[in-house]
Amino acid sequence: MNTTALCRTDRTFSLPPSAADVPGVRSALVETLLEWGIPAGGELVHTIGLIASELVTNAVNHAGVFTPSIVVTLRLGDDGTLELGVRDNSRDVPRPTAASPEATHGRGTAIVDALLTEVGGGLTAERHPDGKTVWARLPGCPAHHDP
Questions:
Q1: How many CA atoms lie within 13 A of 83 on its CB side?
Q2: pLDDT of 43 higher than 70
Q3: Which residues form the Histidine kinase/HSP90-like ATPase domain (predicted)?
Q4: pTM of the entire predicted model
């Protein structure tokens, strides 16, 4: 996995479209949040980790054959808004679906949507000529800043 630090509040990770790399990007995102002063024991770190896992897994499962590299971007705005973007080479936008109780797949987007709704956030997709970026936005994230 390649990492690029654009500034303290913008970090980009690039990984191959492999399910084996999902835990590594989740760990890197959590580490970044902690570096930015997001409280380690808080619900936010867990929530972002889960959202990232679901969105990256979705990109691997549905766009992996079209995508040489999945790009994950994490941004913390001046107003505390946290944005997580997952870019792949498929133009198909994920949509929540009703999975049967026996299904072992198909709940990821619904889980992400429910988590974001709970915190007043949202999920959007930005289409590009070569694919899309799915953005999860969470408002007003608290951060600790040393004086």
A1: 18
A2: yes
A3: 16-137
A4: 0.84
